[in-house]
């Protein structure tokens, strides 16, 4: 179990107050396999772009079997605008073939089974576990990795190590919420590379803000 420090609890309380505690997934989907494919497409791509692509994609390919039997070149064209479309198309077809052959078209909830699927890493697996099966999971995307470090909650930089460290630092009931809240914070206030620190409701708890303030004071002294 995570031992929640006083500082971490203050951060969680403010995030809850600012953003609420409702679970929200930013990728449009109607079921587990659609979320799985959407998450695979979201690598190095915005959720907004993925949602535009999947609106037509899920009509054209209405089932796991439809993706499993898709023509590779045609699927590449269908998902071209999400980037890295060669690997994504290849992995989606292989993944859906495995889902069809091994799991009867259902998406497993076990972390080992999920990460054994083509193109599915821990981030994607935890998106499924958290959003579909409501299993406490921490999703480490670029926002979570960057902002968790800026807030001084973890010093790790490898995504898997960040995930395991956050599991020790955060209470289980906030594992899924952490990703939801931090994505929102990262998109609106704590932007890279130009965060709006003065507008941030966490600035007094943020070591990075404190460091920047000290640097600014030194520059003034010179």
What do you see in this structure?
This protein is mainly α and 222 residues long. The protein folds into two domains: 32-131, Orthogonal Bundle (Endonuclease III, domain 1); 139-216, Endonuclease Iii, domain 2. 60% of the residues lie in helices and 0% in strands. It contains twelve helices and no strands.
The gist of it:
The chain contains twelve helices and no strands. The protein is mainly α and 222 residues long.
Kindly list the characteristics that best describe this protein:
2 domains, 222 residues, Endonuclease Iii, domain 2, mainly alpha, Endonuclease III, domain 1
Write down the oligomeric state: single chain
- The succession of helices and strands, N to C, reads HHHHHHHHHHHH
CATH 2nd-level architecture of the largest domain = Orthogonal Bundle
Net shape: elongated
As a percent range, the share of helical residues equals 55-70%
* CATH class assignment of the largest domain: Mainly Alpha
Mean of residue pLDDT? 94
In percent terms, what proportion of residues is strand?
under 5%
CATH topology of the largest domain: Endonuclease III, domain 1
Largest β sheet strand count, sense and barrel closure: none
Radius of gyration: 19 Å
| Count of β-strands | 0
The number of helical segments is: 12
């Amino acid at each position: 179990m995570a031992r929640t420090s006083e500082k971490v609890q203050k951060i969680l309380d403010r995030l809850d107050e600012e953003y609420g505690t409702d679970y929200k997934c930013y990728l449009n989907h109607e079921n587990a396999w659609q979320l799985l494919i959407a998450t695979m497409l979201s690598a190095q791509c915005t959720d907004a772009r993925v949602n535009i692509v999947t609106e037509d994609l899920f009509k054209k390919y209405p089932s796991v079997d439809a993706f499993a039997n898709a023509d590779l070149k045609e699927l590449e064209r269908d998902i071209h605008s999400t980037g890295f479309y060669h690997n994504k198309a290849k992995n989606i077809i292989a993944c859906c073939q495995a889902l069809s052959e091994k799991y009867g078209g259902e998406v497993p909830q076990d972390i080992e089974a999920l990460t054994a699927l083509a193109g599915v890493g821990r981030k994607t697996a935890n998106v499924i576990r958290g959003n579909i099966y409501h299993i406490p999971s921490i999703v480490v995307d670029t926002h979570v990795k960057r902002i968790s470090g800026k807030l001084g909650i973890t010093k790790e930089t490898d995504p898997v190590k960040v995930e395991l460290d956050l599991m020790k630092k955060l209470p289980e009931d906030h594992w899924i919420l952490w990703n939801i809240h931090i994505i929102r914070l990262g998109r609106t206030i704590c932007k890279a590379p130009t965060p709006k620190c003065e507008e941030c409701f966490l600035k007094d708890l943020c070591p990075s803000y404190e460091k920047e303030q000290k640097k600014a004071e030194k520059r003034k002294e010179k």
